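Hi D.,

Good news: the full-assembly prediction came through. Inputs first.
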Amino acid sequence: MAYRNIKITKGPAGFGGPLIIEPNETKNVVLCVTGQQISPIAKKIAEMTGCELVDGFSTTVPDEKVAVAVVNCGGTARCGVYPRKRIPTVNVEPVGQAGPLAMYITEDIYVSDVKEANLSYTDETNVPAAATAAEEMAAADAQTEATQQPAVEDGKKPGVITRVGIGVGKVVNKFFAAGRESIDTVIRNILPFMAFTSTLLGIITASGLGNVIANTISPFASTLPGMLVISFVCGLPFLSPILGPGAVIAQVVGTLLGAEFAKGHIPAQYALPALFAIDAQVGCDFVPVGLSLGEAEPDTITLGVPAVLYSRVVTGPLSVVIAFLFSIGLYS
Amino acid sequence: MDVIVNITSGFMNWFAEGGNTFSSWVTGIIPQVVCLLTFMNSIIKLVGEDKVNRFASKLTNIAVLRYTLMPVIGLLFLANPMAYSIMRFCDEKYKPAMFDVVATFAHPVTGLFPHGNAGELFVYMGIAQGIQQLNLPLTDLAVRYFIVGIIMCLLRGIITEKIYFRLAGIKK
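Then the structure:
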């Protein structure tokens, strides 16, 4: 029986991987743990690797025989169980490091949101291909008999109730994954920023530094020319890439300005132009990365970076002017 | 002794102030953001990236749509930073301008749809918090921010495109 190595990459909303599955004589089972139905992904993997497909819900296989486990876990148990045992795990649901076993879910052992398009052959074959197809068949038969595992039935149409159940399950899984993602964002991005800024803000306000800042920034931010100056400075090609990263500076300045708006030092209708004045540098640190996310050629990136940076010198102040026009009638 | 006590209490006061700000943000901002994020994330998962991509690939040939609708769709459905991947449907020569446009909209989107760039909420939220403390409605600001954002996308798209064409010696 010839086994072939395959590579499994993550899907559009997935995590982890790519995994290389290397089956051999002793490690030759694709364990499918997807409940009612055998996942088409598991079938495809078994077909591509030449491994035996086993339904994990109807039988068990010793761990050391499992080349890869396929699960459809929404993020509680199964997605962590197999990585914990260091068995390569494929999750057909878009779940990242989640659940009580999250610490075991690492990129070298786990890949999620896998679709058929994410499966591909690697170049080398593990074992020289069997001499003839007949031999291969015979070997496969012998193997099945030897292991005495119930073969998985193909083409078994699930009943209506099962199908409805699976449909509902899919939708609920998506909602659940969405909720998990939101909480994740809050914990990873929003709360840390709040912690850092509120501490900073507390120190600034309580130490009296706030008054100093108020006296320096407010006059700039409460007139159109002042805001034009701010945006022009933020948009300078040698400054904008430094001011950009994570929008941290824009966020801190925004929060400081917010405090000035609250005290009435800056008229409320200037909020709109101020939003653009402090943001002329947005993304300037990110041009090459962003362009490569958009699959741009290296030549495009070389000239694209200066094009964006030069453009900001003009369009930064321009955005303030337009925002200023649109702020007429705001809060009056 | 009194001096030490005074210094210490003054020092602690800094962090009490920070704590107040923090708790008001946590209770005032996070609950709504969490629900909105969850809702929009669910919709994105239900719609699926494929459909978004297919739709986006139809918009790229018309400049007005390219520089207005694409960043909006990109940020609403793919969010920062994956929104940048939407420009792979553009011709190579439009990509620098397209990048600029997506970046431009990365913060105006957060006023109405915080999920679009949840990691950088405070550019808008920082200023909006101040306005909220004046008891003024935020929707007014958020809608205008969104609209001016789109207008700026169009202008910046056209201007950056011209600059890039000049630098790269591309004739239209």
